[in-house]
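Changelog note: in this version the structure field was regenerated for every chain. One regenerated record is shown below for reference.
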Amino acid sequence: MNLNSQAQTPKFLDIVRRSIGDDWVHTADATVSRYGETTLPGSDNPPPAVVYPGSVDEVVAIVNAANETGTQLFPISNGNNISQGSRAPVGANQIVVDLGRRMNRILDFNEDMGIATVEPGVSYQQMHDELVRRGDRFMVDVTSGPPAGSVLGNALDKGAGYTPYADHFAMTCGMEIVLGNGQRLRTGDGALETARNWHMSKYSYGPYLDGLFVQSNYGIVTQAGFWLMPKPPAIRSFAFTFDNDDDLGDIVAAIRPLRMSGFVPTMMRLCNDLWLLASETSHPSYVSGRSITDDERKDLQRAHNLGSWTVSGAFYGASDAQIAPMVERVRSHFASLGRGRYISHEEAMESPTLASAVAAYAGVPSVHEMKQLAWRPGGGMASFTPGVPMDRDLVLQSSRKSREILRSHGLEYLKMYVCGPRFARGLHHLLWNRTVEAEDRAADQAYKALAAAYTDLGLQVGRSPIRYQDFHMSLLGDATRKTCEAIKDVLDPRGIIAPGRYGIGRAATA
């Protein structure tokens, strides 16, 4: 059978209507158009239909119907992965399975252990509000993305935040998955019918299966346990801003011992000027095809009292007084560079762009950085996310290359390094006017040029927009690609779960 031929769609939808109800199968033009929208280069990709399951049993019914009719599905959580693809499917004619609309429950909360069991639709804002309602004893690690983003969806895409619980997948424990063959799987101790440790013991008997469902398309995750961080009584931030682009290497070298020793407990955000300022203002003299000038950048820096690079982090403790010596120690550490200006917690709280970083260290979601979408008209945004070792020279070399490539394509260089002990995720945001064909084409070319340049440096991305997932998979070794395909053949033999996502399986073409 030709998978996902349009002729099969009515049969599939009839079966699904009988299983989950007609109210939860939508085919209206307005709906499918909205689900096809992205902020990426190229055209939108509306699905033929959107279905909204309300339980794991209904997900099983949808997957079984897809297998029976040869229909490709594209499951999403809340569809708020802006700059990665939003709600749009990766292939033509894939039916969107929106888990966020109805499967948005916090199924259990263990207040002794600090564990929340959540469905895919539980958002960062929802989790934060629930924790506050329950006494504000715990906090969830948040991203820079929309507060409406899915806690579970972000973890499954290797998302991360800024607190000591920054690795979101590492903070999951025990999942429930509907495999592509329709079987229901519970990982870890959840495989034991009488399990009491399902969301407490990460590594149980036998192979560790959870990782198979991170950045893959082998099944649909319908719930998972999340470990939550106890909320400290006091949180104090620190920040330093540096005037010159080439200060970057020395800043990274200064960050590394602070993180390797564990002295600074948070990830450290190292942002360039335009990453911060694009959330505060729009392009000062937008002309299609022209990047901002160095003089215009300096004017913006002076207006907002920030330099070319700003680094921040936070300490936790029993009181502000207890934290004060730690802040002084890190202040002295950066002062040894002989340049840079210290920004106190109080000053940071007066600056919206720095206050949003402080909120992230405190587990409070914020929409602030999404304001970058208004930097240029036209709503184009794509993320390029290479990882870079915390090496002074390599970070500086790769940063110079990024700036050169983006400027040559008429785009601005917006960059944030999220710095750990040995490794930093380098988040680029490409911003452009999608309504101008030449700019849209330039953004696509810039992304590909960045990917080629970083590949030459031996550096790979951690995530990818849907337009480029097949490309990034093609860069990996033959054994890796064959193994991913072999697992797909076993767990999803008909290839009905999002083929083409992450470059695994073959998506149908229009």
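Spot check on this record: The chain has a mean pLDDT of 96. The longest helix spans residues 437-456.
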